[in-house]
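queue> holo job accepted (NAP)
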Amino acid sequence: MSKIALISGVTGQDGSYLAELLLEKGYIVHGILRRSSSFNTGRIDHIYLNNNEYRDKRMFLHYGDLTDSSNLNRLVEKIHPDEIYNLGAQSHVQVSFEVPEYTAEVDAIGTLRFLDAIRETGVKTKFYQASTSELYGNVLTGMQDARSKMQDDQDPEFRILHRRAASILHPASLSETSPFRPTSPYAVAKLYAYWITVNYREAYNLFACNGILFNHESPRRGETFVTRKITLGVSRIMAGKQDMLHLGNIYAARDWGYTPEYAEGMWKMLQADRPDDYVLATGETHTVKEFIEEAFAYYGETLNWEGEGVNETATLSASNKKVIAMDPKYYRPTDVEFLRGDPSKALRDLGWAPKVRFKDLVKIMMDHDSESGIR
Ligand code: NAP
Ligand code: GDD
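queue> job finished
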């Protein structure tokens, strides 16, 4: 008998890789599709629309939304999934400052709606919650106080010094036992989702797990997230199709991994003997600035950086062409400055270990975008 999975967010970056993985493992996959005025299945067309083996045989799409409890109840009751992966979310941190209430509706209360649909229907299923390294905020660098001071005095020199300090300090890594201190409406909503998942596990004995995933990227990453914005932008600049790339806080540092490996980790959490929460991360951290340099290095180019803060720019060393500038609109009211995860628990309990490192990841994305990005 094939196992049955239900995925919210199946049209997103993670959902598309997870659906692919589960189909390869012989699952029947049901996905929740949001109604949209234009096509939003681009990431899964190859496994659904254009695949006679899977379409309506082993893969099914259902209209639905995390803001609609009756829809979630109906789907859980009708599909009777063995495993539910709750990946649907308003997932953009900067956008969450613009739509905080909607972000809470979908990311926080949407998770409660799903868990309650399981409880109400009594369907025996496992539940994966897409938790995030954004939960930690700036606990590693101790920047929280500095951040409020920055808000007070707005001194650009002070801000720059602190950003630099955060990326140079190389503090310890974040694990399942590190404290949370969210710094955006997105992260606060995800904090609720994290704890309601733990609570339903304890209160109702649900097999419910939080995957605390650090940033993971791929050629399917949304184009407004910084890695993809860079790999597409650099490809277009080098092809003469774009003049410059405008960015925000390039001193922010992230622990970037490769999404297909993280989809495998999500699945492993639901195959464990007992439900628990796990960090998935590489343990390696780089700044946005380093990502930009690595993307230009793909073409053998190096950069000359000049100026400070919003006036910082970069030119190609060979031609002196200006290619990078800052734009204040990409700075967030509060930002997470430095993330590095410790995935030892996932290694020990699940046998999960990422192989793709930072340079491999940039190459995978550049290989893709230097072809498709210049069309
Ligand atoms: P993504 O590409 O932005 O995909 C988000 C998915 O959620 C899309 O399928 C989207 O549908 C769907 N969605 C949005 N609002 C919804 C709603 N109201 N009801 C139902 N579905 C809705 O995000 P991702 O990178 O794949 O991330 C997947 C999950 O992991 C998210 O919960 C994210 O917060 C979390 N996460 C991501 C990372 C990362 O680095 N990628 C790290 C930690 C946690 P449309 O396609 O119609 O927009
Ligand atoms: N998006 C974006 N665009 N970010 C920029 C830019 C820009 O032009 N310039 C600098 N940045 C900085 C942001 O300020 C942030 O510090 C960092 O680059 C990464 O931004 P994103 O790629 O948007 O990702 P994120 O870390 O905020 O959030 C992603 O990872 C989380 C896991 O830690 C999302 O996938 C979240 O859904 C996920 O939870």
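queue> The mean pLDDT is 93.
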